[in-house]
Amino acid sequence: MKMPNLSWQNETQLFxxxxxxxxxxxxxxxxxSTGIAEFYTGNPAHFAIRHAFYLLLGIGVTFxxxxxxxxxxxxxxxxxxxxxxxxxxxxxxxxxGHEVNGSQRWLNLGIIKIQASEIAKLSAVFYIxxxxxxxxxxxxxxxxxxxxxxxxxxxxxxxxxxxxxFGAVVVLMGAAMVQxxxxxVKAGQFFLLLFAxxxxxxxxxxxETYRMERLLAYLDPWAPEHVYGxxxxxxxxxxxxxxxxxxxxxxxxxxxxxxxxxxxxxDFVFAIxxxxxxxxxxxxxxxxxxxxIGLIWRVAWAAQKRxxxxxxxxxxxxxxxxxxxxxxxxxxxxxxxxxxxxxLPFFSYGGSSLMMCCAMIGIVMRxxxxxxxxxxxxxxxxxDHE
Length: 386
What we know:
A three-stranded antiparallel β-sheet has the order 1-2-3. With 386 residues, the chain is mainly alpha-helical. Helix 9 packs antiparallel against helix 10 and helix 15 packs antiparallel against helix 16. It has 17 helices and three strands. The longest helix is centred in the C-terminal third of the chain and has 37 residues. 72% of the residues lie in helices and 3% in strands.
């Protein structure tokens, strides 16, 4: 019997695209952060060095996570959900929770600060996946099977809104809805959930003054009352895109990163990349992200065909989380969506975001490995039978 090859490069097509995205993200951060790094630390490479450390740590996380069998994850989804809830509660505990720009979203662990919503989103994916497998008949035939998981998610959403982190709510609920829809929820139930989500979202947006100001600024960022206020980030981002034109003004030559565009190395790193490399460089980055997400969907489809439904639902959830975050971040950068504080997966500076993205890739690599191993064992069994 032929032994399965444990080499990442041979076992999964995700390896090289993922690695290229990490290196491209480091290049983006290294270029976009020079101005702010020199101003605050005196070292233009400060954030580039820190991001390189996070990158290496992320690679280690990916390798480690990829060694954990999916059968073990299946036994831990309830525990992971509890961890997600605990993290969302701890952000409000003095000394543990850390406030950034008026939002109480971070857990201060000393050497690193972790955004609690990153853990919560992945824990919700695991919980929904396990629930769909355990209660498949109930989910597909009864209202109770559809409503039960939504009750737990509603509590998680309430905690996220208290931080506040509306962007994480959109990503979490979007991924959960995709999982439920592909898990066999009736179309009527799904569209009712979609309608209810839109109604609740509208209420949430209009309930807070700052969210309404962001919405109005999004509709007309160049208006005199917005251009130096809530619309400032968007206008400066659009200027960056306009300066980039077809091929950019040159790597490292951005003007917008010199304190014109806030959060240039985090939420708006893509705008700086587009300024320096133009439409051509931006398209390459987008194609890379699309390839990674497309390959994750391919892994999910392969697992589903081979009857590994738990793994398939998890891969679907991860693809949805990453895809929605990419769409929202790019929509904010280009003015297609109101401003939200969401990083661009693999590209934006930030330790917790990069760690969780790498952990997700490690999980998908494990799913891909087990799926291929399952197919190989089936082929060998067929050959032995013959």
